Amino acid sequence: MTEITDKKEAIDNFKNMDKEISLHDVSDDLRADKEVVIAALERKPDDLWVASDELKADKEVVMIAVKLGGYNIQNASEDLQKDKDLAIAAVNQDGTAISALIDEWKNDKEIALIAVKQDGRALSDVSSDLQADREIVISAVTNWGSALEYAYEKLQANKEVVLTAVQKNIPEPDYEIDERTVTAGLALEYASADLQADREVVETAVTENGKAIRYASNELQADKDLALKAVSGLGGALAFVSDDLKADKEVVMEAVKQDGNALRDASEDLRNDKEVVMTALAMQDMFYFEYASDQLRADKEVALAAVSSYGSSFSELSEELQNDKEVAIAAANNDGNIVKDLPESLLYDECILEAARKQILESIKESPRRFVSIADKWKADKEITLIAVKDPDSYDTLEYASEELRSDIDVVCAAVEADGRALQYASEELQNNKDVISKAKKGFLPLLKNNPDEYRYIPKSLSNDKELAMIAVQSFGNHLEHASENLRGDKEVVLAAVKNHGYALEYASEELRADKEIVMAGKGGALEYASDELRDDKEVVLAAVKDTAYTIEYASEKLQADPDVIKASEGK
After folding, report:
1. Which of 67-76, 501-510, 545-554 has the lowest mean pLDDT?
2. Rounded Cα distance, 559 and 546, in Å
3. Residue 176 has pLDDT above 50, yes or no
4. Domain segments of the chain: what residues?
5. Per-residue H/E/C for 480-494
6. What is the pTM of this model?
């Protein structure tokens, strides 16, 4: 971007949110202009550091930046970094901005309280004296329980403080769920060993987050009531209870009811317990089946439950069960892709193939993009492929079809009508088929009108279409680069391109780079790519440098020394 020197232009641009601009883009004089800088900061407060030193020392200016981004106080003058009003404004905007304050304010209780109430994590940056202040710490852990990590050791051993930290603290009914609530209870990690062994504290923590039992004492990790409380809220908490409780069926059953993956942490005996495994499998994920004992993975009832919940678990079955037709049909009804894992004995079974195909058809109708990952057998199925390629949001679907279907005119026509870009994935023969090209243009035209930048991806077979090229270059001249060689030699197309963007002349034919009308239409941007003859044409060069002064460097040596040209480049 050319440096902006005009005050009104700068302010207007800062107020126009569609403009890509920052304080870096204006002259040094404007960076010292209070009105300009304020307009810039209201758009991008981080630009304070670019402002003049004088304005970095202006309290009004700095206050605007700090109220929009607390950390910007670090870019204020040294004197203003000592200003308490600004320090308060900074931590009000972002509690963690206390890290950017001078040490004096990190030890100021008023400022520290504001900071930790805004964001409990600010406790990490207050002075050590204030990390030992009960009021400060209570305020911090109320906002963010895990701020307990930064509290003075004695306060990590204070029951009231720790109970506050491990509880979910939601200040208002519509409080947005965020990391503070998700990690509730886990502050137990930072409590003293005595409090990690305190039943009331641990029970409070695991009630909020079952995983908190991870930080409880060994004795409490072996407490069945606490374990049940933990796993009933979060099945994965089973990983952190004692080994004895991992072998307790009641505890394990409660865990796998919440999360089938908890089966992984159950004792070996319970991973061989049919009821436990069946309960885990009801959670519908193949990975849970992986943790069942070898004995149960060979059990037909268990296998049927597994493949009915998650068909791809068919690949995890014993050889005997993979050859069981009933099991295979159950798997196919859930996942048609199991055909790739079928044993030779069932490879051509009509019942299984029919069930699998039906499932794939329904799956593709629901989400055509799934075509990309289905078994190759179905990528060669014309009906399935036709459904997939008609999806207007997946132009590259045709790429994944079988070679035979990429040569099928019905499939290709359906694909290119949905999105003309699909033409590039058709067989070479069909890419040059007139009917296909016509349909591809029909599919590409609305896409291009909506977003002319899509011309960058135009299939080669469409790159010679003048109508499409005109739409593209009238939006952005440099799209001429993607047009065919023939169209880069078409005067009407090139003229439209350089009128939009003079630099587009780079992609024009040699003949048209020597066309005076075209070069004049491209103004300053075109001169660099004009023929030697036209770069020695005074009329052309004068028009160019009047438009863009620096283009004088592309004029002939003779004209670079011409007084009229020099004056024109200097704006005289």
Report:
1. 545-554
2. 14
3. no
4. 1-93, 371-462, 467-572
5. HHHCCCCHHHCHHHH
6. 0.65
